């Protein structure tokens, strides 16, 4: 029971940190503790430094991303590519907007962060094999481009101000059709 309580407290801290940092990226540990509904001493028992908390928040965000990708059914082989991509992008944007925080650079990615990148790359590779995506770029490069579109909509104005549905629609359209002017628009 104590371990479950400990995990619930840790998760409350991370959720509180994400909410606080979204409003004020410079927020300190006292504000984060208040948002999590705990005292500062409890916060420091879980995370000795702000940098440690931010680093763990990146890991937590990636874990949540993997969970929502699974819940969204974004791996379903029975869905058409645009629907699969839209589900995945919406899931990643929703999680990213809830938990995105600038974390200190660490030497390597958390395994969960690598798994999100791997999921995107495998999705692109499957779509390439099915003839649904271009093959003049390797899956890792095309996947990185997709990831960059998603990350950009989490960090750059005016993209941040778009709602999740509008941002997801723009990303899916841009990724699948490119930014070229159609023949109707050019004429």
TrEMBL record:
Q: Name one GO molecular function term.
A: DNA-binding transcription factor activity
Question: Keywords in UniProt for this one?
Answer: DNA-binding, Transcription, Transcription regulation
The HTH tetR-type domain covers 7-65
Q: InterPro entries of this UniProt entry?
A: Homeodomain-like_sf (IPR009057), HTH-type_TetR-like_transc_reg (IPR050109), HTH_TetR (IPR001647), Tet_transcr_reg_TetR-rel_C_sf (IPR036271)
Looking at the UniProt feature table, which residue ranges are given for the DNA-binding region? 28-47
Task: Note the PROSITE patterns from the entry.
Answer: HTH_TETR_2 (PS50977)
Family annotation (Pfam families): TetR_N
The name this protein goes by in its record: AcrR family transcriptional regulator
